[in-house]
Amino acid sequence: MSALRLVSNRTSQQALSNSDYTWDYEYYEYAPVSFEGLKAHKYSIVIGFWVGLAVFVFFMFFVLTLLTKTGAPHQDNAELSEKRFRMNSFVADFGRPLESERVFSHQMAEESQSLFHFCINEMDHMNKAKESQKGPNLESNTHFQEVPKSSGMFEEDLHCLTKFNIPNFVNTEQNSSLGEDDLLISEPPIILENKLVKQSSHRILD
Amino acid sequence: ENISDFSLNTTDCTQVVVPEEVFFTVAAAGILENLLILIAVVRNKNLHLPMYFFICSLAISDMLGSLYKTLENIFIILCKMGYLTRHGDFEKKLDDAMDSMFILSLLGSIFSLLAIAADRYITIFYALRYHNIMTLRRASVILAVIWAFCAGSSIAIALFSYEAATVIPFTILFPLMMFFILCLYVHMFLLARSHAKKIASLPSSTVHHRTNTKGAITLTIFLGVFLCCWAPFVLHILLARFCPHNPYCACYMSIFHVNGTLIMCNAIINPMIFAFRSPELRSTFKKMFNCSR
């Protein structure tokens, strides 16, 4: 393979005059480098660089993890069953927003709404893509049914802040995402000037 | 001075050679993957959104990087077979053109990542007005400006690559952009955290509260992959400019081929962490492959 040296002669031209331009490689060998009397290991820059890079990446990861800590305790099984119940009751009484969701939705800050709407847009695109002609509850049921199949994927499916795994918007737990869809469907009564929001909500419903 | 007959010291750092087959395979995989993404976005009307335009821009710059390496290999083979002379003006111009293509790819990658981060930032912080702020037309204009700037800079850098004045800004731009992107994402994270706290404090809230490491992992992967793939090359350029005769620097520069391969790996990994996360894009792929059967 010695004949096959790859290109990139930019800096090698520094030492050579212009007429000596060649395709040959040896990126830097325009003067023999003496390796006598090295105090440290000869690959010390390589090792130091990669170790430094690894340390930096881990440090960044830890800082980010600390930033995303929410710090409150787990709430497990009671929550799951409650959500399942709410889901069933929603399907049964379609169109009547559940009390708790209504309260919750009215209490939301605009920031939360902004996240919703991004998620709504994403869901909107998903809906369009599916070209579903069915009615609204069937449509939303389709979503809900799909979630168990791709348990961890719904979060990524939204491709939005969901990646950051905000609880209640996105979660790897299927039931929490069901809760989110509950909220989305109970959204329409929220009066927002943004036409887009209404349209997307209506699209989800219709 | 014939380069090929330098004397080999026994303690020398010889060039670490990556086999040609590996180079070609990695480059071809990168080109194909990114080409698929471009085709999918063009074919599916649902994907004509600013977000996907920026992802396409990233795919194009990745493709350019892999294309550069492929062309380089091909030219070496042509040289070996004698179709191209080793000396000459034409080859010099060709080499300059290819160098500028490579730098264009690097700059394009950086700016595309920046555009993707900014787009997500606007989506989150200005969500209600997002569709007015980031229209398709504006996204196209932004992309045109970015690529014009990258093209101009890459040509300038390739022509004047011997000056320290080009190397230093180039190597400063890299960490600066990374830092800026990191700041954008960290701000988004902080919002997510404050949201989580608000939601957790609501009386009717029944959500899980736990440490969400998934977002941290995602962001670390985004930036970590980019850093690990491009930083070695950037350091190489710095060392080549400032300490080419130093034995330590020379040893670092001997792994140049590995650095090049890393850049091509970046072209393969980037679609996976950006484009393939979108379900719409994935379903478009499935349709494409199902139709072709």
TrEMBL record, chain A:
<dbReference type="GO" id="GO:0031783">
    <property type="term" value="F:type 5 melanocortin receptor binding"/>
</dbReference>
<dbReference type="GO" id="GO:0106070">
    <property type="term" value="P:regulation of adenylate cyclase-activating G protein-coupled receptor signaling pathway"/>
</dbReference>
<dbReference type="InterPro" id="IPR028111">
    <property type="entry name" value="MRAP"/>
</dbReference>
<feature type="transmembrane region" description="Helical">
    <location>
        <begin position="43"/>
        <end position="67"/>
    </location>
</feature>
<dbReference type="GO" id="GO:0005789">
    <property type="term" value="C:endoplasmic reticulum membrane"/>
</dbReference>
<keyword id="KW-0256">Endoplasmic reticulum</keyword>
<keyword id="KW-1133">Transmembrane helix</keyword>
<dbReference type="GO" id="GO:0005886">
    <property type="term" value="C:plasma membrane"/>
</dbReference>
<dbReference type="Pfam" id="PF15183">
    <property type="entry name" value="MRAP"/>
</dbReference>
<dbReference type="GO" id="GO:0030545">
    <property type="term" value="F:signaling receptor regulator activity"/>
</dbReference>
<dbReference type="GO" id="GO:0031782">
    <property type="term" value="F:type 4 melanocortin receptor binding"/>
</dbReference>
<keyword id="KW-1003">Cell membrane</keyword>
<dbReference type="GO" id="GO:0070996">
    <property type="term" value="F:type 1 melanocortin receptor binding"/>
</dbReference>
<protein>
    <submittedName>
        <fullName>MRAP2 protein</fullName>
    </submittedName>
</protein>
<dbReference type="GO" id="GO:0031781">
    <property type="term" value="F:type 3 melanocortin receptor binding"/>
</dbReference>
<dbReference type="GO" id="GO:0031780">
    <property type="term" value="F:corticotropin hormone receptor binding"/>
</dbReference>
<comment type="similarity">
    <text>Belongs to the MRAP family.</text>
</comment>
<keyword id="KW-0812">Transmembrane</keyword>
<keyword id="KW-0472">Membrane</keyword>
<dbReference type="GO" id="GO:0072659">
    <property type="term" value="P:protein localization to plasma membrane"/>
</dbReference>
TrEMBL record, chain B:
<keyword id="KW-0472">Membrane</keyword>
<feature type="transmembrane region" description="Helical">
    <location>
        <begin position="213"/>
        <end position="235"/>
    </location>
</feature>
<comment type="function">
    <text>Hormone receptor primarily expressed in adrenal cortex that plays a key role in regulating adrenocortical function. Upon corticotropin (ACTH) binding, facilitates the release of adrenal glucocorticoids, including cortisol and corticosterone. In addition, MC2R is required for fetal and neonatal adrenal gland development. Mechanistically, activates adenylate cyclase (cAMP), the MAPK cascade as well as the cAMP-dependent protein kinase A pathway leading to steroidogenic factor 1/NR5A1-mediated transcriptional activation.</text>
</comment>
<keyword id="KW-0675">Receptor</keyword>
<keyword id="KW-0812">Transmembrane</keyword>
<dbReference type="Pfam" id="PF00001">
    <property type="entry name" value="7tm_1"/>
</dbReference>
<feature type="transmembrane region" description="Helical">
    <location>
        <begin position="102"/>
        <end position="128"/>
    </location>
</feature>
<keyword id="KW-0832">Ubl conjugation</keyword>
<keyword id="KW-0449">Lipoprotein</keyword>
<dbReference type="InterPro" id="IPR017452">
    <property type="entry name" value="GPCR_Rhodpsn_7TM"/>
</dbReference>
<dbReference type="GO" id="GO:0005886">
    <property type="term" value="C:plasma membrane"/>
</dbReference>
<dbReference type="InterPro" id="IPR001671">
    <property type="entry name" value="Melcrt_ACTH_rcpt"/>
</dbReference>
<keyword id="KW-1015">Disulfide bond</keyword>
<dbReference type="GO" id="GO:0004978">
    <property type="term" value="F:corticotropin receptor activity"/>
</dbReference>
<dbReference type="InterPro" id="IPR001168">
    <property type="entry name" value="ACTH_rcpt"/>
</dbReference>
<keyword id="KW-1133">Transmembrane helix</keyword>
<feature type="domain" description="G-protein coupled receptors family 1 profile">
    <location>
        <begin position="33"/>
        <end position="274"/>
    </location>
</feature>
<dbReference type="InterPro" id="IPR000276">
    <property type="entry name" value="GPCR_Rhodpsn"/>
</dbReference>
<feature type="transmembrane region" description="Helical">
    <location>
        <begin position="22"/>
        <end position="42"/>
    </location>
</feature>
<feature type="transmembrane region" description="Helical">
    <location>
        <begin position="255"/>
        <end position="276"/>
    </location>
</feature>
<keyword id="KW-0325">Glycoprotein</keyword>
<comment type="subunit">
    <text>Homodimer. Interacts with corticotropin (ACTH). Interacts with MRAP; this interaction targets MC2R to the plasma membrane. Interacts with MRAP2; competing with MRAP for binding to MC2R and impairing the binding of corticotropin (ACTH).</text>
</comment>
